Amino acid sequence: MQCHRINELLDLLKDEWMTSQNDSLMSFLGKIAEEAGHKGDLRAMNDDMLIYHLKMRSRDHHEMIPGIAKDCIDDFKTAILKARGIS
Hints:
This protein is mainly α. The protein has a single domain (3-83), classed as Conserved Hypothetical Protein Ylqf, Chain: A, domain 2. It is 56% helix and 0% strand.
């Protein structure tokens, strides 16, 4: 894992864990895993899943994923032209 990913994970974890200060770290991670739909051992949980879920946890359920939102084009004609390299 790269250093910036560790820092990102720690920042996200700190912000979200502050809302559940009475939980231990493992119980909080268990809660996050359950919310994300992870079944099984916590050791098998992917760090990408943890980062993604922590990012999206406080957002509206219907809000678009930030990585996808930057590439989204609302107008179909513009999207087709861009895909063909005409825009």
